[in-house]
């Protein structure tokens, strides 16, 4: 059974998790790249809620909770902090706040990324459901955003339908979303 549909434009959280971008040591290119990619793919109305934060487990977790529970984001996309380095804690924060993990997202994104870089296996990127929100992790390299989002996006609208996150439509010239029950 699908959850009740939310009315109005879907809110999408865009979270850059980077020590250096959050301190202004370099310009954040990840958040704007996600915004650009979503604008290319999604044809229905949506609004962005962007955040730029350091690689701090508690702050990542509280930002994800705030975006899902208070801002009401149906989808939250993160970039950065998925690797093996000591401060890479995004998957841990994602697991901490999710009711249900969606391992297929990470599997597909790593497999697609492996065609681009052999170090794709170093990303522990994952996805999960918190209430009526889907959280998806992307690697920090801004160039990874296009490859990873394009790979998983065909399944995202139906996932959002199933959890009651709101309805989104995609531009079929860019991404054909698959809704088995429509
Ligand atoms: N938000 C971003 N904006 C621009 N470039 C980025 C961003 N995040 C990462 N990068 C680039 O990708 C590289 C690898 O990203 P990674 O997430 O491993 O960074 P990092 O070494 O953990 O450092 P930091 O957390 O300070 O971004 C970085 O060294 C940087 O060149
Ligand atoms: N598509 C894609 N995936 C990628 C990469 C990349 O450049 N492109 N970088 C890899 C590398 S080098 C690392 S260390 C991991 C984790 O990156 P993160 O800690 O920035 O999230 O993502 C991997 N996945």
Tell me what you see in this structure:
The protein is an alpha/beta fold and 182 residues long. It is 38% helix and 19% strand. It has one domain (10-163): 3-Layer(aba) Sandwich (Molybdenum Cofactor Biosythetic Enzyme, Chain A). The protein has helices at 19-23, 30-41, 57-70, 90-97, 103-114, 142-152, 156-163; strands at residues 10-17, 46-53, 73-79, 100-101, 127-130, 133-138. It has a six-stranded mixed sheet with strand order 2-1-3-6-5-4, sandwiched between helices. Strand 5 (127-130) and strand 6 (133-138) form a beta hairpin. Helix 5 (103-114) packs across helix 6 (142-152). The longest helix has 14 residues, at 57-70. It is globular. It starts with 9 loop residues before the first strand and ends in a 19-residue tail after the last helix. The mean pLDDT is 96.
For the structure shown, list the relevant keywords:
binds the ligand Nc1nc2c(c(=O)[nH]1)N[C@H]1C(S)=C(S)[C@@H](COP(=O)(O)O)O[C@H]1N2, Molybdenum Cofactor Biosythetic Enzyme, Chain A, 182 residues, binds adenosine-5'-triphosphate, alpha/beta, six-stranded mixed beta sheet
């Amino acid at each position: 059974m699908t959850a009740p549909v939310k009315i109005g434009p879907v809110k999408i959280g865009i979270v850059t998790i980077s020590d250096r971008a959050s301190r202004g040591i370099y310009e954040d290119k990840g958040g704007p790249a996600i915004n650009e990619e979503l604008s290319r793919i999604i044809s229905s109305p949506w609004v962005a809620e962007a955040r730029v934060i350091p690689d701090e487990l508690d702050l990542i977790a509280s930002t994800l909770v705030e975006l899902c529970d208070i801002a009401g984001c149906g989808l939250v996309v993160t970039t950065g902090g998925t690797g093996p380095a000591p401060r890479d804690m995004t998957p841990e924060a994602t697991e901490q706040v999710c009711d249900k993990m969606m391992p297929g997202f990470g599997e597909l994104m790593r497999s697609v990324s492996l065609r681009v870089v052999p170090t794709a296996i170093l990303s522990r990127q994952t996805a999960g459901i918190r209430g009526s929100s889907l959280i998806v992790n992307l690697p920090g390299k801004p160039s990874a955003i296009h490859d990873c989002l394009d790979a998983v996006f065909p399944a995202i609208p139906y996932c959002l339908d199933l959890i009651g996150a709101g309805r989104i439509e995609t531009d079929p010239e860019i991404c054909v979303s698959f809704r088995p029950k429509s």
